Amino acid sequence: AQKITQTQPGMFVQEKEAVTLDCTYDTSDPSYGLFWYKQPSSGEMIFLIYQGSYDQQNATEGRYSLNFQKARKSANLVISASQLGDSAMYFCAMREGLGGFKTIFGAGTRLFVKA
Amino acid sequence: DTGVSQDPRHKITKRGQNVTFRCDPISEHNRLYWYRQTLGQGPEFLTYFQNEAQLEKSRLLSDRFSAERPKGSFSTLEIQRTEQGDSAMYLCASSSPGTSGKGGLNEQFFGPGTRLTVL
Fold this sequence. Notes:
The complex is a heterodimer of chains A (115) and B (119).
Chain A: E1 3-5, E2 10-14, E3 19-21, E4 24-26, E5 32-39, E6 46-52, E7 60-61, E8 64-69, E9 74-79, E10 88-96, E11 103-105, E12 109-114
Parallel strand pairs in A: 2-12
Antiparallel strand pairs in A: 1-4, 3-9, 5-6, 5-10, 7-8, 8-9, 10-11, 10-12
Chain B: E1 5-7, E2 10-13, E3 19-24, E4 31-37, E5 44-50, E6 53-57, E7 65-68, E8 75-79, E9 88-95, E10 100-101, E11 104-105, E12 109-110, E13 114-118
Parallel strand pairs in B: 2-13
Antiparallel strand pairs in B: 1-3, 3-8, 4-5, 4-9, 5-6, 7-8, 9-12, 9-13, 10-11
Protein backbone atom coordinates (compact mmCIF):
# COMPACT_ATOMS: atom_id res chain seq x y z
CA ALA A 1 0.00 0.00 0.00
CA GLN A 2 1.18 3.49 -0.73
CA LYS A 3 2.33 5.58 2.20
CA ILE A 4 3.98 8.95 2.84
CA THR A 5 6.02 9.60 5.98
CA GLN A 6 7.07 13.00 7.25
CA THR A 7 8.99 12.59 10.49
CA GLN A 8 9.47 16.26 11.39
CA PRO A 9 6.34 17.69 13.06
CA GLY A 10 7.99 21.11 13.30
CA MET A 11 11.10 22.83 12.01
CA PHE A 12 12.74 26.17 12.74
CA VAL A 13 14.98 28.06 10.32
CA GLN A 14 16.62 31.44 10.41
CA GLU A 15 15.54 33.89 7.75
CA LYS A 16 17.77 33.73 4.64
CA GLU A 17 19.08 30.27 5.49
CA ALA A 18 18.23 27.01 3.70
CA VAL A 19 16.10 24.27 5.22
CA THR A 20 15.39 20.65 4.27
CA LEU A 21 12.03 19.02 4.96
CA ASP A 22 12.13 15.24 4.95
CA CYS A 23 9.77 12.89 3.14
CA THR A 24 9.91 9.16 2.54
CA TYR A 25 7.40 7.17 0.56
CA ASP A 26 6.40 3.61 -0.12
CA THR A 27 4.81 2.22 -3.23
CA SER A 28 5.00 -0.88 -5.39
CA ASP A 29 3.97 0.97 -8.55
CA PRO A 30 6.97 1.87 -10.76
CA SER A 31 5.07 4.89 -12.07
CA TYR A 32 4.24 7.61 -9.58
CA GLY A 33 4.41 11.32 -8.98
CA LEU A 34 5.66 13.10 -5.89
CA PHE A 35 4.43 16.53 -4.83
CA TRP A 36 5.04 19.15 -2.22
CA TYR A 37 2.30 21.55 -1.17
CA LYS A 38 2.37 24.56 1.13
CA GLN A 39 -0.63 25.29 3.33
CA PRO A 40 -0.65 28.69 5.04
CA SER A 41 -3.03 29.47 7.87
CA SER A 42 -5.69 30.47 5.32
CA GLY A 43 -6.04 26.78 4.47
CA GLU A 44 -5.48 26.74 0.71
CA MET A 45 -3.17 24.03 -0.65
CA ILE A 46 -0.52 25.72 -2.78
CA PHE A 47 1.36 23.49 -5.21
CA LEU A 48 5.14 23.94 -4.96
CA ILE A 49 6.98 21.27 -6.93
CA TYR A 50 6.54 17.93 -8.71
CA GLN A 51 8.84 15.00 -9.43
CA GLY A 52 7.91 12.11 -11.69
CA SER A 53 9.31 8.69 -10.91
CA TYR A 54 11.02 8.51 -14.30
CA ASP A 55 12.49 11.99 -14.18
CA GLN A 56 16.26 11.80 -14.33
CA GLN A 57 16.96 15.17 -12.80
CA ASN A 58 15.84 16.64 -9.51
CA ALA A 59 13.01 19.10 -9.91
CA THR A 60 13.56 22.78 -9.17
CA GLU A 61 11.10 25.69 -8.99
CA GLY A 62 12.64 28.97 -7.95
CA ARG A 63 13.75 28.67 -4.33
CA TYR A 64 12.34 25.15 -4.08
CA SER A 65 14.21 22.01 -5.08
CA LEU A 66 13.35 18.38 -4.58
CA ASN A 67 16.14 16.01 -3.55
CA PHE A 68 14.86 12.80 -5.16
CA GLN A 69 16.65 9.61 -4.08
CA LYS A 70 14.70 6.83 -5.75
CA ALA A 71 16.60 3.90 -4.24
CA ARG A 72 16.04 5.27 -0.76
CA LYS A 73 12.45 6.27 -1.59
CA SER A 74 12.98 9.76 -0.32
CA ALA A 75 11.82 13.08 -1.76
CA ASN A 76 13.08 15.85 0.50
CA LEU A 77 12.14 19.47 -0.13
CA VAL A 78 14.89 22.06 0.08
CA ILE A 79 13.90 25.71 0.51
CA SER A 80 16.76 28.10 -0.08
CA ALA A 81 17.01 31.65 1.28
CA SER A 82 14.04 31.24 3.65
CA GLN A 83 11.62 34.14 3.96
CA LEU A 84 9.21 35.00 6.75
CA GLY A 85 6.36 34.22 4.37
CA ASP A 86 7.56 30.64 4.12
CA SER A 87 6.17 29.95 7.59
CA ALA A 88 3.40 27.41 6.95
CA MET A 89 2.53 23.71 6.92
CA TYR A 90 4.27 21.70 4.21
CA PHE A 91 2.85 18.44 2.89
CA CYS A 92 4.57 15.76 0.87
CA ALA A 93 2.20 13.79 -1.35
CA MET A 94 2.18 11.00 -3.91
CA ARG A 95 -0.04 9.73 -6.72
CA GLU A 96 0.44 6.25 -8.10
CA GLY A 97 0.37 5.96 -11.87
CA LEU A 98 1.49 9.03 -13.75
CA GLY A 99 -2.12 9.92 -14.51
CA GLY A 100 -3.58 8.62 -11.25
CA PHE A 101 -6.36 10.38 -9.41
CA LYS A 102 -5.92 9.62 -5.71
CA THR A 103 -3.35 11.77 -3.90
CA ILE A 104 -1.94 10.42 -0.64
CA PHE A 105 -0.58 13.03 1.76
CA GLY A 106 1.85 12.86 4.65
CA ALA A 107 1.05 14.31 8.07
CA GLY A 108 2.94 17.50 7.29
CA THR A 109 5.76 19.57 8.75
CA ARG A 110 5.17 22.99 10.25
CA LEU A 111 7.95 25.37 9.30
CA PHE A 112 8.72 28.43 11.40
CA VAL A 113 10.99 31.08 9.89
CA LYS A 114 12.69 33.30 12.48
CA ALA A 115 13.64 36.89 11.77
CA ASP B 1 -11.04 34.29 -10.91
CA THR B 2 -10.57 31.00 -12.78
CA GLY B 3 -9.55 28.85 -9.83
CA VAL B 4 -11.52 26.26 -7.87
CA SER B 5 -14.07 27.88 -5.58
CA GLN B 6 -15.84 26.46 -2.54
CA ASP B 7 -18.83 27.68 -0.60
CA PRO B 8 -19.20 28.32 2.25
CA ARG B 9 -15.70 28.93 3.55
CA HIS B 10 -16.79 28.29 7.11
CA LYS B 11 -19.75 26.43 8.57
CA ILE B 12 -20.71 26.00 12.21
CA THR B 13 -23.52 23.60 12.96
CA LYS B 14 -25.00 21.66 15.83
CA ARG B 15 -24.65 17.94 16.13
CA GLY B 16 -27.41 16.12 14.28
CA GLN B 17 -27.95 18.80 11.64
CA ASN B 18 -27.42 18.30 7.93
CA VAL B 19 -24.90 20.41 6.00
CA THR B 20 -24.14 20.80 2.31
CA PHE B 21 -21.00 22.18 0.71
CA ARG B 22 -20.51 23.27 -2.88
CA CYS B 23 -17.47 23.10 -5.12
CA ASP B 24 -17.10 24.84 -8.48
CA PRO B 25 -14.14 23.41 -10.40
CA ILE B 26 -12.10 25.11 -13.07
CA SER B 27 -14.50 25.30 -15.98
CA GLU B 28 -12.71 23.01 -18.45
CA HIS B 29 -11.86 20.35 -15.87
CA ASN B 30 -13.93 17.17 -16.05
CA ARG B 31 -12.41 15.51 -12.98
CA LEU B 32 -13.34 16.56 -9.46
CA TYR B 33 -12.11 15.31 -6.08
CA TRP B 34 -13.11 15.73 -2.45
CA TYR B 35 -10.64 15.44 0.42
CA ARG B 36 -11.06 15.81 4.18
CA GLN B 37 -8.39 17.27 6.43
CA THR B 38 -8.59 16.99 10.21
CA LEU B 39 -6.52 19.14 12.53
CA GLY B 40 -2.83 18.32 12.43
CA GLN B 41 -3.16 15.84 9.58
CA GLY B 42 -2.74 15.83 5.85
CA PRO B 43 -5.77 15.69 3.55
CA GLU B 44 -7.42 12.30 3.04
CA PHE B 45 -9.09 11.28 -0.20
CA LEU B 46 -12.88 10.94 -0.02
CA THR B 47 -14.24 10.60 -3.54
CA TYR B 48 -13.63 11.25 -7.24
CA PHE B 49 -15.86 12.19 -10.16
CA GLN B 50 -15.22 12.01 -13.85
CA ASN B 51 -17.85 14.18 -15.43
CA GLU B 52 -21.06 13.28 -13.56
CA ALA B 53 -19.97 9.74 -12.68
CA GLN B 54 -18.69 9.01 -9.19
CA LEU B 55 -15.92 6.51 -9.90
CA GLU B 56 -14.26 6.03 -6.53
CA LYS B 57 -15.35 6.34 -2.92
CA SER B 58 -13.14 5.99 0.11
CA ARG B 59 -14.22 3.83 3.03
CA LEU B 60 -14.01 7.09 4.99
CA LEU B 61 -17.21 8.12 3.23
CA SER B 62 -19.83 6.63 5.53
CA ASP B 63 -23.49 6.35 4.54
CA ARG B 64 -24.09 9.75 6.15
CA PHE B 65 -22.02 11.33 3.41
CA SER B 66 -23.22 11.77 -0.14
CA ALA B 67 -21.57 13.57 -3.02
CA GLU B 68 -23.09 14.51 -6.34
CA ARG B 69 -22.07 16.15 -9.56
CA PRO B 70 -25.35 16.18 -11.46
CA LYS B 71 -24.33 17.97 -14.64
CA GLY B 72 -20.64 17.29 -14.59
CA SER B 73 -19.85 20.81 -13.49
CA PHE B 74 -20.21 21.85 -9.83
CA SER B 75 -20.37 19.26 -7.06
CA THR B 76 -22.06 19.09 -3.67
CA LEU B 77 -21.02 17.18 -0.58
CA GLU B 78 -23.77 16.58 1.97
CA ILE B 79 -23.29 15.30 5.49
CA GLN B 80 -26.42 14.09 7.27
CA ARG B 81 -26.81 13.91 11.03
CA THR B 82 -23.47 15.56 11.65
CA GLU B 83 -21.24 14.33 14.46
CA GLN B 84 -18.44 16.14 16.27
CA GLY B 85 -15.95 13.86 14.51
CA ASP B 86 -17.01 15.37 11.21
CA SER B 87 -15.34 18.65 12.18
CA ALA B 88 -12.64 19.15 9.57
CA MET B 89 -11.59 21.09 6.51
CA TYR B 90 -13.24 19.76 3.35
CA LEU B 91 -11.13 20.38 0.27
CA CYS B 92 -12.16 20.15 -3.35
CA ALA B 93 -9.79 19.79 -6.29
CA SER B 94 -10.21 19.52 -10.04
CA SER B 95 -8.12 18.37 -12.98
CA SER B 96 -8.23 17.73 -16.69
CA PRO B 97 -7.03 14.39 -18.07
CA GLY B 98 -3.90 14.44 -20.10
CA THR B 99 -2.93 17.91 -19.03
CA SER B 100 0.73 18.00 -18.25
CA GLY B 101 1.68 21.03 -16.26
CA LYS B 102 4.16 21.76 -13.56
CA GLY B 103 2.30 19.24 -11.42
CA GLY B 104 2.71 16.45 -13.92
CA LEU B 105 -0.04 14.55 -15.66
CA ASN B 106 -3.52 15.10 -14.26
CA GLU B 107 -2.34 17.98 -12.08
CA GLN B 108 -4.91 18.73 -9.37
CA PHE B 109 -5.83 22.28 -8.43
CA PHE B 110 -7.20 22.78 -4.95
CA GLY B 111 -9.88 25.15 -3.74
CA PRO B 112 -9.66 27.14 -0.49
CA GLY B 113 -11.68 24.57 1.46
CA THR B 114 -14.75 24.65 3.71
CA ARG B 115 -14.02 24.51 7.41
CA LEU B 116 -16.77 22.65 9.28
CA THR B 117 -17.21 22.90 13.03
CA VAL B 118 -19.78 20.64 14.67
CA LEU B 119 -20.76 21.73 18.16
